[in-house]
Amino acid sequence: MFYNMTGILSNRKPACVSALSMQSITAMRDHSTHLKGLLLTFAAVVILSPDALLVRLIHCDVWTLLFWRCLLTGIMQAIFLAACYRSQFVQSFRNTGRAGFLSAAVVAVGSLFFVNSLKHTTAANTLIILAAAPLFSSLLSWLFLRENIARRTWIAIFICFGGILLIFSGSLRSGLLLGDLLALGATLTWAGNIVILRSSKAVNMVPANLFGNLLVVPAALLAGAQPMAVATPDMLFLLLLGGLVLPVSFTMITQGPRYLPAPEVSLILLVETILGPFWVWLVLQESPHAATLLAGALIVGTLAVHTLMSLWALRRPHVVVETPC
Prior knowledge:
Order of helices and strands: HHHHHHHHHHHHH
Shape: globular
Radius of gyration: 24 Å
Strand content: under 5%
Helix content: over 70%
Low-confidence stretches: 1-10, 318-325
Number of domains: 1
Number of strands: 0
Oligomer: single chain
């Protein structure tokens, strides 16, 4: 009997150890995946952060800037998609359907708003207003997708809206209101694109983004762009912006949510709101106005707290009934 009992115990013990080992392996794998997502998303934000500075350093007219910015970004995205899809390259565009055409149109309009905003107001004003895009997308999701909005999100929306009004009040005195309104337009269009992407989760919408960039090219030509009249220093900045910064960072950012919860990605993206104006200040000595600094602290602080609360709610442990081994 002793032999049989020890046999039973010896058979049970390895089963428990095996289960614990599997849990340890899974935990290590989850930790590795999470670390990969953190590094990928943070690197993407750092690469993207000079976007506003490069736009300010390029001295050609805004339509020529838009022409090259969107054309070069579209070409790099096409190379990436061709490498990924190969013979299914054309089909990847068809798969986006009507939502893809709508997303492309929104991307095109958003690009027009964003670049023109940076030419008519400070980089800090533009980037701080743009930081509120995720909250505006929640509002649009509530209107069009009938998604529920948590109380904390409603509170954050009202606080951020107050911060944007504070930026507007400072711009009224400094003549920057037009640029701020363009930034608000870019925020609403990008928030709308987030809603479109969420309604088409099963489809890769990168081809729609590519198409949206290419839509800007003929629009810029019709508006008077002069692609061949670009000075050499401007062309170097354009190649850096459209050939490296935008396509690489956007590709990496789209991969982030595969490894991280959406609230954590949003929290990391707030780093650009700080780094973007910092690079402009460091190189061009462009200092934000007092109202912008106050509004920026209000909006970024609100978004950070809201995102942390969302992340905490997402990771809150659920009650699980475990059977003893």
